[in-house]
Amino acid sequence: MTVRNAKSWLSVGWFCAVAPLVIILVLRQLNDFYGSDAKEVWNWFSQFVVPALTLLGGAWTVSASPTDDKQIDRPMVFWIAVVLSLFYIALLYVVIGMQTWSSMPWQEQFKQSALFLGVIQGLVIAVVGKFFIESAR
Amino acid sequence: MLDLRTLCVAMALVCGPGAVLAQSASQLANIDSQLNALCARLQSAVGDDASAIRARLSALSRQRTAYLDALPPAQRAVELQRSRVSPQCLTLARGSGPSRDGKRAARKGYRGGGNYSAPPEPVPRRSIARNGTPPSSDSPSGLQPGSQPEAQLEEFFPWPPPAPSDRRLLQPSQLGGDPPATWGHVADRLIALMHRARYPTWGFYLAPGGFAVIPRIEQLDQNGTALAGTERWATEVKLASTSVLDGIFTVRRPKGIYRAIAFVITTDPRSGGPVTDPKRMLETARRWGLSGALDLPQALRSRPLTADQRLFALVYEFESELGGQTKVNAPGRWDLDWHFMNAGLALAP
Questions:
Q1: Which residues of B are less than 8 Å from A33 in CB distance?
Q2: How many folded domains does chain A comprise?
Q3: Could you give the angle at the alpha carbon of B125 between the alpha carbons of B119 and B129, nearest 5°?
């Protein structure tokens, strides 16, 4: 697999996986799911989704180079990035899915989820970042 | 020789009663003005404020009674003629807590005058406020849960109950059969009515000058129709699924709609202001039909219905989102006639 293909798959995968999340959150806000306190929702989104998207978008603009056409040197890093990304995105969906049935207030759920999402997001960004940097060399 | 001591004694004999009278008049006027001010405030007060005002009214009433009792009869009559407190306020103050003149106040009636010096002829017990027992000081509604036989019933609600979703004045004859003559007759007919509507349980509670009976809270669908089977009595919203996958794609918070109906026979058919804490109110309403007495105590059953008692029905509609807000619909989404028809509570025209 070429570096360009790997980067494309990773980036497109991320954007496609996050798009429904945005739509769900928008629909919930419009249906008063979050009441009058919807700011908390978008704070959570900015904190746990936007950084990864920014990294991916930034990598495309900054690290575009002739090396994109060569084969990836360390496929392991790429696959770890993919698996970790999938796991992280799945957790994001679990958090918003649990809000529907849980008797715990949604604000509290977001607050609790921040504890583990913060850790996993750090790992995801580290691995994805490593892949983009290494592939640019 | 007219010594200084003799002069002082003579002056005291001449001026003393006048000074004492002036001082006492001022004390009574002070109490009366405080009572009037508190009664005026009580009309717009709700919740804890109302309770605090009633407690203060009760304390002032006791203070006034003790003060008047200590006076010689002739002076007491003069004092009472100068009294500025309204009879209604005085009655309210006496009914707000334990007082030494509670029996007299009770004989004079819930809304009767507060003429301290003219005890009327005893009349048969006609209401809680007239039963001749001193009201409880910790009872914000002026009921007497600590007295017999009312002690066997819990209070329905700190009176007046909050504004319902809908309410209706009913005639006791609408309960069917011959016009009821006693509280027991009314209770029996209400129980029969609830039996016919398949309510599994209900609770009897104390209300001013009467009682309240409340069947178990019911869950409704979005059209205001009671859910079928046992779901009707579920106190939590019925969920089609609880899987995370379904939860992800749910953009509206699951909402339960509940209905609590209260029948109240009382001499004080008022409703208060809007519900201030709907979540707590719903929790209370969930217990109404499950706690409380299953029937009226025998001593209350034999009490006669009087002309000043009114039978009315209150309906409270609750909408409670799972993990979200709870609200009481006031006014309700459906009227009382719909609720009665849907619940199977068939009243005579």
A1: 251-253, 324
A2: 1
A3: 75
